[in-house]
Amino acid sequence: MLEVRGLRAGYGRVEILRGIDLDVAAGEIVAVLGSNGVGKSTLNNNLSALYRPFGGTIRFKGEDLVGLSSTEVVKRGLIHVPEGRRIFPDLSVLENLELGSLVRGKPNRQRNLDRVMAIFPRLKERLKQMAGTMSGGEQQMLAIGRGLMSEPELLILDEPSLGLSPLLVEEMFALVQRINGEGLSILLMEQNAVQTLAIAHRAYIIENGHVTMQGKAADLLRDPALRKNYLGL
Amino acid sequence: MLKVTGLSKVFGGLKAVDDASLSVSEGSIVALIGPNGAGKTTLFSCIAGFQKINAGKVEFQGEDITGLPVHTIARRGMVRTFQVTQPFARLTVHENIAVGAYQQFPRRDEAWEHARRIGKQLGMEALLDQSAAGLTVAGRKRLELARTLATGPRLLLLDEVMAGLNPSEIIEIVEMVRAIRASGVTVLLIEHVMQAVMSLSEYIYVLSYGKIIAEGQPREVVSDKAVIEAYLGRGAAEQIAQSHEQEGAHA
Hints:
Distance between the termini of chain A: 34 Å
Helix content of chain B: 40-55%
Largest interface: A-B, 32 and 32 residues
Number of helices of chain A: 10
CATH superfamily of the domain at 1-77 and 186-233 in chain A: P-loop containing nucleotide triphosphate hydrolases
Oligomer: heterodimer
Shape of chain B: globular
């Protein structure tokens, strides 16, 4: 579904990703792990065309995405739920969700809205509330809900567990598995590495701009070097 | 050191904090945990004077500070960090820390020197001349801690300083919080990273829907049924129990 080859990307003159190869097959949950500042968000920003790569190719469903606008990328079903929620604080919860179907998913808006409210009953209780007055966890639910309103085929989740209570983290990972079970492919960037590897099919570890480890998540979870250096186990 | 009695805060029709009481004794590390939206950050804001409260009393070092302005409370030695870090992006890390240091040191050269010491203490020495805008999440969290620490607090209120950090970064910041306490600063922290809460805190309060639903020693609190139901979930509760057993086995 997604094939990234030799992706080089950064900001201004600073190259952060120095040649990344990465694949997501249809129906997979693929995790990308790495320390803060390693370029996970840079990868996302380039996949969703918020920035243009320095080099390399990004193919989605067989089509090259490099050079398309972010609107065009959304139209094709690649949806990015950004780190730090980035909801519209002065709009209501409902307005935020409706904006999710601005570019894609408009004909099925009501059906998608019902689905999002079934997944996040908390949002249903707060549809008319200003989004900025909700707690951090609720805003995170809203950001994911807004992403689902666009009927994604590939959903990029950038740190969805950030700032959530342990119970909600557990629910969040269960939710990711559930929407994946409904056929959605997921690219998951997380710091919660152990839980991420527990639900992902495959994972990539990025260090110094390169993929330094990759493989089945279950194998990585058992890897002694990774456990010691990264998982803190 | 800090005593909060019957604090309530109402927004419109919503009771965000409902008759909450807690106390923090000098030299301790106390944690405030609870579900998202429980009112933890609101309670912090009320304690530190950022929000007017509807009922209750806040005492700090034996004096009633209810209703005092933020800067007065800060000058008396209670400061807080913010969940969403907002450094002065166009200033350097050093300048950002110095902003906090002016609280204790009105003279520029002294504030500057103090900021350097604090930066060093928090392992940010190499970043001092860098612009704050270029910091990673972990760096911004550390700067937030540095800015408040530079004010020379007696009591630090830390609001999720570990969110968004990876496991090895969390281990580093846990060590820093321990060192801060060892230097004589009392700590009250809001945190979801239970591994850190369990290893740092001596006492835990649990807030849910604005009310304190449980309090006690960490082990008591994490095995409390209401806490597991409202906050931890079974998975996390089992994990914590397991890691305790392992520690017990090692000991």
